[in-house]
Amino acid sequence: MGKCLKSLSNLLSLSLIIGRANQIDDVGYQRLGDALKSFQKITSFTFSVQNDNLLNSESLKFICEGVETMTNLTSLSINIEANIIYTEGAQHIGNCLKKLKNLNNLTIQILHGNCISSSGAEALAEGIQTLVNLENLQICLQTNYIGVVGAQNLGQAIKNLKKLKYFFLKLNGENQIEEDGAIGLSQGLKKLEELRNLSLNIGLNNQIKTEGFLKICKSFESMEKLQSLNLFIAKKNIIGQEGAIQLGKSLKQLYTSLSSLQLTLKDVEIGFEGMEGLMDGLKSLKQLTYFIFY
Ligand SMILES: *[C@@H]1O[C@H](CO)[C@@H](O)[C@H](O)[C@H]1NC(C)=O
Ligand SMILES: *[C@@H]1O[C@H](CO)[C@@H](O)[C@H](O)[C@H]1NC(C)=O
Ligand SMILES: *[C@@H]1O[C@H](CO)[C@@H](O)[C@H](O)[C@H]1NC(C)=O
Questions:
Q1: Most CB contacts within 10 A, which of 125, 204, 207, 275?
Q2: Range of 262's domain?
Q3: Global pTM value
Q4: Relative to the alpha carbon of 45, which ligand is closest?
Q5: Which residue's CA lies nearest to atom 9 of ligand 1?
Q6: Residue 181's beta-bridge partner residues?
Q7: Best of 9, 38, 72 to mutate for ligand 1, by most ligand atoms within 8 A of CB?
Q8: Atom number, ligand 2, closest to the C-alpha of residue 44
Q9: Each residue's pLDDT tens digit, 209-249
């Protein structure tokens, strides 16, 4: 495979998808990584490793060393399902991102089992913050034991992305960003004035409290061009009546642009007054053509 790829030096777009439970070893990944160095013209690359391949950080390092030579890349997607890259693996990805200044479209999905933790999120954030041309950023770090600091670092990183139009962030599953992590994220979100689509999945375990939720809602108010909002928050997060009222107020500010809204507030107590406040905001969204409330 590595040898064959090497001879395709004119490739502009490549997707490498390693299916479930393959037996590629370190040497195999090293050959693949070397082959990636032959694609100087490539603009779009997808690397996916499905469940149970036992991809580790050493193997991922070979791939990242290949990817960082693709300096003309504008679109990169890295999807690592249940494998074992850990914090070090995330560091390799973060380092390679720093070399890819032309990226405008980036997807990073690292699923459970990889356990990148806050230090891994920090390394990714360090890479992401250098990508000032990004317009589309999708990050899914479901169940990676990311705590307060990891979320704060991600918040810092997105602050720099002034051109960002589409942002998807999924921190569901076993992550625990807490109040301060949510506040850190909100500080980044409020700088994203060009945003068109925002999807924020806080899941059910992050334990953010009313103050964190309030700040996140307020950050929406600076997104004057926001057309689509998808917000998911559940159970072990506390919104309170105050949070729901703020959400209503913040939505109201988006009345000229918002056309699509998906709100999932699942098993969070917002009370009667919270519901009223939320409804008060919703009814001013005259441009809304698509709405799901759960
Ligand atoms: C990289 O992109 C630049 C600008 O689009 C182009 O001039 C250059 O030829 C490209 N390099 C390669 C190796 O394709
Ligand atoms: C961005 O990348 C994703 C994932 O590779 C792809 O599906 C999407 O079409 C790309 N979008 C643009 C605008 O290139
Ligand atoms: C933005 O949101 C709209 C409405 O939900 C959707 O149709 C569109 O595909 C989204 N665009 C991107 C680039 O995700």
A1: 125
A2: 2-293
A3: 0.96
A4: 2
A5: 41
A6: none
A7: 72
A8: 5
A9: 999 999 999 999 999 999 999 999 999 889 999 999 999 99
